[in-house]
Amino acid sequence: MKQNLTTLTAIAAFTLLPAVAMAKENTDSLSAGGKGEERNVMLNASDATKPREIQIGLPSEDVNVYENGLPTVYSSTVHQLARHWRSDASLGTVGLMNPMESAIKTGNIAYSVDSYSNFGQKEFKTIFNYRTNTFGWQNFDFNVSGGIGEKWLYTASIYQNFDPGYFKVKFTDFSDRTQIYHAGLTRLFNRGKLSIIYKFSKSNALGSMINNAPFIYVGDGSVMEIPGFPLGTTSYAPIGGEFEYMDVLDGKMKKGRWGDFTDNYAHDLTAHFDYRFSNDYKLDINAKFMIAPHADYCDFGGSSIFETTAADQLYKPGEDTPYIGLAEGRRTWLHAGKVTNALLTAELNKSFANHDLRFGLNEWYYHLDYSSSSFQWTGTVSPYPDILVKHNSDGTFSQFHGFNELSSEYTKGYENKSAIYITDNWQITPKFNLYFGGRLEYYRMSADQIPYARYDGFHIGDTHTYTDNEGNMTTVKIEPHKVLKNKLNYAATIQGIYNFNRHFGLTADATVATRYPRINEYAGTGPTEEQYKRVTIPLIRGGITYRNNWVDLTSMVTYIAKSNNIDQQNVTKPGTTQSKTTLLIYSIKTLG
């Protein structure tokens, strides 16, 4: 929900393992638009267990993995996707939803993983996968499925990940400890089936707490290691110990320990129904209720790296001599969320003559109760850095400061999407295929927002005096303000494919989707009424295709743009640890 703009020396996130997890082909794909693309999708280039955010040249449009026709998580800004989904033995198929399909079905232009559960089969079947590496990683997933009589199927799965990371983290045993459990029962009918699946996930992962590291940016695109800090095998997280923070909800000073703020668990109940009528109409209904009582995580960030002097009066804990050497102003955010959503998607499909027609609707409800508290500290630029103690001029000592000054956040409320959509896949001639569709969405959002600039000691219930834009002194009480929006969003797409012969063809498509700022974008100071504008995303692609028995090649030129993108940055004054949070609203476009 916030990003860090680092000056002078950059702080980079990295992992060593270049392993990838490949999604299986969608066997229900079509040559144009409709059901996805016959292609594999690399889920992650840096971690073999977690889903990748598949980008197409824009800042993330959030949800990018669907499970049984619905978002795995409605929004990953608080309840992160990797805490509730892994590509494991519980899945029967994993395919790719292209940007056109995603825009019409969900209102979101993005390449998206489209996964479906292993609902079971009449014969008994087991799947067991085990993975390890030289760092001590242990990962396994197991599925058992089969039939009960002639009308019932069952499935059950366990996923376990014990990942210590690529270096020893001193304050916990694992950088990622994730558990996911599935259990499902399916009732077969003459023309369809009804499946009920329960899913429980529990995940503790450290993320940016350990994945940041300092380096020297050379200036030509390359980097050098800081002496004494080998990249990739060295921890830039403190050894442990207790820290102090101010709770943004009530202003009380509290204590905590690193690793105590990573709890994530969720309960998920899904129903999947499909039925083919005697006149060849096919009905698919997917519904889900999910609650995540704890969607918590901890972020680390950095500012400028500088050389300390005795005048800075910074000391290592327990030492009497001022610390002289490289130091950095570090930031920590403690995110706490509770998420509930109820999702329903229904589709009616009919093929006739040269048409494949589909009509669908979404009814998606999402409730969020979220806050984050932040604090700052100064650490040595070294493996397992010391948290330096500041000797103040009044004789006091402090290790932590800047409480809730940077990106402390709060929002509580809901958003609801009610949408209808229609698509047609029209084989006009044996050589020419046309796919087109449209979506109309009613969007309602109600959010509690705190629109005041943050400062040291910021919290709900505080009384604060500041100078306004006209130079007047103003006193305000920090309390939530209600924001209510009712808007219409739309999406439209068209794609044409012309095949000259069995091998060569031309393809072109155009898609546009719109949306308004979402509830998570009000967790900070949020957009003002003047800044509240429609976000429009157009996508245009065109190129050639070539197919034979061993290769399927598409080469295209792609243009995509996005207006009124909202971004929150923490900006640091060069050469200092002085920082402020600012809201950026900008447009972006990419040609590739």
How are the secondary structure elements laid out?
Elements: E1 3-5, E2 11-13, E3 65-67, E4 70-71, E5 91-97, H1 99-106, E6 112-117, E7 125-132, E8 138-148, E9 152-163, E10 176-188, E11 192-205, E12 212-214, E13 216-217, E14 223-224, E15 242-246, E16 253-257, E17 264-276, E18 282-295, E19 297-307, E20 314-315, E21 326-352, E22 355-380, E23 389-391, E24 397-398, E25 400-401, E26 409-427, E27 432-449, E28 463-467, E29 473-477, E30 481-499, E31 504-515, E32 535-547, E33 552-572, E34 579-591
Description:
A hairpin with a 3-residue loop joins strand 8 (138-148) and strand 9. The two termini are 27 Å apart. Mean pLDDT is 87; it is low at 2-39. The protein has a 19-stranded mixed sheet that branches. It has one helix and 34 strands. It has one helix at 99-106; strands spanning 3-5, 11-13, 65-67, 70-71, 91-97, 112-117, 125-132, 138-148, 152-163, 176-188, 192-205, 212-214, 216-217, 223-224, 242-246, 253-257, 264-276, 282-295, 297-307, 314-315, 326-352, 355-380, 389-391, 397-398, 400-401, 409-427, 432-449, 463-467, 473-477, 481-499, 504-515, 535-547, 552-572, 579-591. 1% of the residues lie in helices and 55% in strands. It is mostly beta strands.
